[in-house]
Amino acid sequence: MIISFIVYLVLFIGGIVLMGISHGLPDFQALVFCAGLAAFCLSMAWIMRAGRSGATRRSGNWDGGPSTS
């Protein structure tokens, strides 16, 4: 659980930092910004998937019916 949080935090903060510094770079601004955006999105996907009650798990579906997997 702690490792999962550390991975999330590194991706989240790293993505924000990359997006923040991208405007000040002389070259590769778009590439650095897209890398930061991808890291930010991966951090959100990581934290939603982590844990037993992850938001993207099939067994915890929201309609109350049986799970598909």
Structure description:
The protein has 69 residues and is mainly alpha-helical. The protein contains two helices and no strands. It has helices spanning 2-21, 29-49. Helix 1 (2-21) packs antiparallel against helix 2. The model has no long low-confidence stretch (mean pLDDT 81).
Topology:
Layout: H1 2-21, H2 29-49
Helix pairs in contact: 1-2
Termini separation (Å)? 24 Å
- The coarse overall form would be elongated
Number of strands: 0
Strand content: under 5%
The secondary structure category is: mainly alpha
The biggest beta sheet reads:
none
Indicate the low-confidence ranges by residue numbers: none
In short:
The chain is mainly alpha-helical and 69 residues long. The chain is built from two helices and no strands.
Descriptive key words:
single chain, 69 residues, mainly alpha, 0% strand, elongated, transmembrane helix, membrane, transmembrane
